[in-house]
Amino acid sequence: MFELFKVVEFFPKMLETFVYTIWVVIGSVFISFALAVPIAVIRIKKIPLISQFCEVWLSFIRSMPGILELFLAYFVLPGMLDKVGIDTSDWSGTTFVLIAMVFHYAPFISEILRPAYLSVDIGQHEAAASIGLTGFQTFVKIIAPQTLPVALPLLCNAAIDTVKDTSLLFTIGVIDLMGKADLIIADSYGMSKMEAYLTVAIYYWILTVGVIAIFRQWEKYFKKYKLSTGIKLKS
Q1: What Rg value do the Cα atoms of the chain yield, rounded?
Q2: Distance (Å, rounded) from C-alpha 155 to C-alpha 105?
Q3: d(Cα 133, Cα 130) in Å, to the nearest integer?
Q4: What is the pTM of this model?
Q5: CA-CA distance, 125 to 141, in Å (whole number)?
Q6: Is the pLDDT of residue 44 over 90?
Q7: b or e along 102-134 (b: 16 or more beta carbons within 10 Å of the residue's beta carbon)?
Q8: Structural domains in the chain (count)
Q9: pLDDT at position 226, please?
């Protein structure tokens, strides 16, 4: 029988793992975005060999289930690194989680940024060069402010996907929301499954709503300077 008061009881018990999940999402998104920018540049410039490698990387992650990438990072990568003299025995589970997440989302986000960058009229690059701006100054002052609004809706979707992918972390022994739910269920001898999983669902809903709220604020910021995405973010 479903008991609502147990959801209230479980809510504070899962708070610590909820905070942990938030940090995993933040770390994954920021590191992935930081790597996605140079990957997008490499593909736009079509740098020999490296560009082809990035395309194979993107093709590979598109075909791999998230749980398999997590297993490859946690079970296969340590053995590969050990052969080149890198000891991973003291690495935390979180390290492997971030490696798996970044491995998946860095090329994925680059594929969001690349067409957004290419949507900016080439004439603006030429105009910037004509007034003496460097390539970096052109990107920061002219191109990026027009690229990000175009990419914003898909970046929001990528962040939400990252949130949902954290539900796989318990499969390698990391105590996340799902892992904590399993511990609570075990302590109740399997009698509180509905309540525990509903609590997890509520936490994921809160986190997703928070992500959408952040991106909506960015959307408002871009609109303030008349850099509209042209697309509404939906909850």
Answers
A1: 21
A2: 10
A3: 8
A4: 0.85
A5: 11
A6: no
A7: bbbbbbbbbbbbbebbeebeeeebeebeeeebe
A8: 1
A9: 60
Report whether 198 contacts 9 (CB < 8 A): no
Contact 162, 108 (CB under 8 A): no
Res 219: pLDDT: 84
- CATH number for the domain that contains residue 197: 1.10.3720.10
Q: Which domain holds residue 187?
A: 4-224
In a domain, 47, yes or no: yes
pLDDT on residue 224:
73
The four Cα atoms 82, 92, 94, 54 give a dihedral, to 10 degrees, of -20
Residue with tokens 């003299």: 85
**Which of the four pLDDT bands, split at 50, 70 and 90, describes residue 211?**
very high
| Contact yes or no for 200/178 (Cβ under 8 A) | yes
Q: CA-CA distance, 204 to 217, in Å (whole number)?
A: 20
Q: How many CA atoms lie within 13 A of 164 on its CB side?
A: 8
Tokens 């809706």 belong to residue? 153
